[in-house]
Design brief:
The complex is a heterodimer.
Chain A: E1 2-3, H1 13-20, E2 34-44, E3 47-56, E4 65-71, H2 72-84, H3 103-114, H4 121-155, H5 163-170, H6 182-204, H7 210-260, H8 265-335, H9 339-407
Antiparallel strand pairs in A: 1-2, 2-3, 3-4
Chain B: H1 2-11, H2 14-26, H3 56-65, H4 71-86, E1 93-103, E2 110-119, E3 128-134, H5 135-149, H6 164-172, H7 177-199, H8 201-205, H9 207-214, H10 229-247, H11 255-305, H12 309-388, H13 391-467
Antiparallel strand pairs in B: 1-2, 2-3
Helix pairs in contact in B: 3-4, 6-7, 11-12, 12-13
Classes of the chains: A alpha+beta, B mainly alpha.
Domain PX (chain B): 91-220
Subcellular location (chain B): Cell projection, Lamellipodium; Early endosome membrane
Keywords (chain B): Acetylation, Cell projection, Coiled coil, Endosome, Lipid-binding, Membrane, Phosphoprotein, Protein transport, Transport
Chain lengths: 408, 470
Amino acid sequence: MKVLEGLDDGPDFLSEEDRGLKAINVDLQSDAALQVDISDALSERDKVKFTVHTKSSLPNFKQNEFSVVRQHEEFIWLHDSFIENEDYAGYIIPPAPPRPDFDASREKLQKLGEGEGSMTKEEFTKMKQELEAEYLAIFKKTVAMHEVFLCRVAAHPILRKDLNFHVFLEYNQDLSVRGKNKKEKLEDFFKNMVKSADGVIVSGVKDVDDFFEHERTFLLEYHNRVKDASAKSDRMTRSHKSAADDYNRIGSSLYALGTQDSTDICKFFLKVSELFDKTRKIEARVSADEDLKLSDLLKYYLRESQAAKDLLYRRSRSLVDYENANKALDKARAKNKDVLQAETSQQLCCQKFEKISESAKQELIDFKTRRVAAFRKNLVELAELELKHAKGNLQLLQNCLAVLNGDT
Amino acid sequence: MVQNLQKLCSMMTEKIFLQIINSLRAEATEEVSLDSPEREPILSSEPSPAVTPVTPTTLIAPRIESKSLSAPVIFDRSREEIEEEANGDVFDIEIGVSDPEKVGDGMNAYMAYRVTTKTSLSMFSKSEFSVKRRFSDFLGLHSKLASKYLHVGYIVPPAPEKSIVGMTKVKVGKEDSSSTEFVEKRRAALERYLQRTVKHPTLLQDPDLRQFLESSELPRAVNTQALSGAGILRMVNKAADAVNKMTIKMNESDAWFEEKQQQFENLDQQLRKLHASVEALVCHRKELSANTAAFAKSAAMLGNSEDHTALSRALSQLAEVEEKIDQLHQEQAFADFYMFSELLSDYIRLIAAVKGVFDHRMKCWQKWEDAQITLLKKRETEAKMMVANKPDKIQQAKNEIREWEAKVQQGERDFEQISKTIRKEVGRFEKERVKDFKTVIIKYLESLVQTQQQLIKYWEAFLPEAKAIA
């Protein structure tokens, strides 16, 4: 299923998405030096191919404007390369976009195909349209999330200069980054285990610096609460969608009643059926907008707060290293053996720690600014959309009632 | 009798006359199948006050079978009634069922409901009165009315359904929300049941109904228990009926009946489908309400831990808005159910009653048919006796022939009567149905309007808070 930007057969909320999503979760100033976006995407079986489009005035690139095709695994490769790069230890690494997941949608489409015989033609067409719209929405979301990742990298003063990033943007062949095989995945798993075990140890150390102490307490709690809010918001949006789907079925049943009834109530039923169809579209939009402005926002900040926590962890690790180096130096001085070596080592640790602390401080302040701006933007837009839809619904209902009351 | 009616015609006041003219105009397209032209003005299918389907002869027959008041009284009363209404009484009676109260303890406990009647009809001694009734009393009333009127073609509104599980919870004393919900659902259903019953002009006249509404003490209806002997007998009879229905092949001379039966069959199917969808909506709306409440709490927690003051405040406000919206969803689910869903389930049961009435007509036809066959056989017997020259047997045969000729005549009359009654009843039913659906659906849409208006209020209050985040 090829999805072109202009091919919007769904309601106009999709085009809202198009424009708004670029800056939806992050308040970025994109400048002429480097602008990245995903201009096109193709869904092929279980792969999604993103066309990454770059416009840049930087001398690093051969041309001013160019595009390449990338897949999800290549984004992950880029993200992991940042994580593994020691030089970036002091920065919040933009969270990786989640894997495109069309399984649920595909299953539903399949079930619909199987159940075709048991419903009327109108119902089948309606449900098919619904599911196609759903598929399209998920598709647009995954495009947006991959794009946000790239934009965050492009906006970061240090990360935008990364060589791997430039290769990612420019190299027009396949990067041949196979997904991690089993062995590597297992290695990752153990690394994460060690990290969390470490995390427990390291977090026990009270930080001398008030700023970081506060940040750590804050982030730990915030992360957990965002996780909870994100899950609950998801459930709420899903219920909303189920209710909207029911309106669809009710509309169909009323239509059938209206066409079969022998009394003068048939006109009445047909009008009410029309109302339910229209109101259902609005309810579906409400659910989609809540998903976008609330659920997605919370999900994104769940990932970002995790990235911030990771930064704190890395800083704590380097602090521990520094303290160990101090102890080693004292021991060396006491024994008067390998003192120079210990001194150099200690100095390196000190430098590393101070570098991380400095950039971390700035990163965390920026994180807060970004977060506040994103929440503000999304909450305002959420309220505005809710109002717009409620007013639309009200209008529909009042018009319908006027007609019905006039008839009877 | 015809002369009496003609006298009544001329006694009618202008108001009632106009009412009938208007109703006839409204039904221009609806057929009114009645044979005697002078009856037309009175016996239109509109349930208007002065119109009581006056067919007292059929009422007498069922009366004798029942244990309640005797036939002649009914006839007199109905003539009285017409005279009273001719003098300007308006069809005005309002029933309320309220104040469910638990009486007794343990498994013998029951709920008593207050039945309040407000009326200006002169057949009642007071204009406002109330009594206490329990569920089995309602079932008893329905049972009596059904036994009197169903088999002559009247569509008797069905009583609310029994629920052993629901009632047991209440008896055992669980004070939780599900038992309160159950009681409320039942109370509303009982109210709708009575309102439908009194709207039926013939049933309104019934002394059992009046006794139910008026008298402070009511003999306990014992044969309505779910698992009683009588209950099981009823079930067996129903099964036998179903088998019989399959074997009766009626020569339908009137296409109207076949058409109507098909229509009701279709309507039944459609209503069931719609009902299922509405029930799903109620369920999902309740789910939405619960999930919104959970999210509200979560958002409040998030607001608490957010260290940017303005954002923290906005998040708390969001939590408050979502809490209010949760309330809204709950109220809407309530409306979804009590207005829309219950209307549909009431009508699904009413249509079952309509189908029952059509079945009775078939049985009536069968009886007539059987009488004709028996008469034929008796005539054959007579002929045989004549050939065999047995004078005493001939006399017996002739007697039997006379007997069965009368039965055939009665059978034909009964069949014609029930057909006529059904046509009227179906016409009345369809009018009621149209009115009911329109009224309730409009009310339901108004509830949706209210919800949207509230939503607008809440979000409008929140928007400046969100914008105030700096």
